[in-house]
Automatic annotation (TrEMBL):
Belongs to the bZIP family. C/EBP subfamily. Residues 53-69, 83-99 have a biased composition (Basic and acidic residues). It is found in: Nucleus. SMART domains: BRLZ. InterPro entries: bZIP, bZIP_sf, C/EBP. This is CEBPG protein. Residues 12-32, 128-142 have a biased composition (Polar residues). It comes from the Eukaryota.
Length: 152
């Protein structure tokens, strides 16, 4: 690339700038570029139909569009409020259900504790009443002591 490319800028009939570059090996290329036509330069270019409509605020079409837009906004806000209201109602229902379930848990925990105590008391009483037997078939514990006293 010993030679530098050459550029030439022209405008076509639509006001679009066209940059023409000539590279050493490839000949002339055209690259279109949009350039603002307004004398202030920069900014957004508005289509002619939109600028006319925004300027004509007294027209029936404009008033109809505003009315439709106002109704749509009102409807959207109503839907949003209704959704928030429904969500709040659901939250309240779930809180109530949660409180009911928590009280049920407390009640069942108390019942479980009472039943455990009864079971342990019953198991303890059974253990006291049942006397283990020795390998020779005689009972151990009190009866064994009685046998020893009579044998002397």
């Amino acid at each position: 690339m010993s030679k530098q490319s050459q550029q030439k800028t022209t405008k076509d009939q639509n006001g679009v700038s066209v940059i023409q570059t000539q590279a050493p090996t490839s000949g002339l290329q055209q690259v279109p570029q949009l350039v603002p036509v307004s004398p202030g330069g920069g900014g957004k270019a508005m289509a002619p139909s939109k600028s006319k409509k925004s300027a004509d605020k007294e027209s029936d079409e404009y008033r109809q569009r505003r009315e439709r837009n106002n109704l749509a906004v009102k409807k959207s806000r109503m839907r949003s409020k209704q959704k928030a209201q429904d969500t709040q109602e659901r939250v309240n229902e779930l809180k109530e259900e949660n409180e009911r379930l928590e009280s049920k848990i407390k009640l069942l925990s108390k019942e479980l504790s009472v039943l455990k105590d009864l079971f342990l008391e019953h198991a303890h009483n059974l253990a006291d009443n049942v006397q283990p037997q020795s390998n020779d078939g005689s009972t151990t514990g009190q009866n064994n002591k009685n046998n020893n006293n009579t044998g002397q």
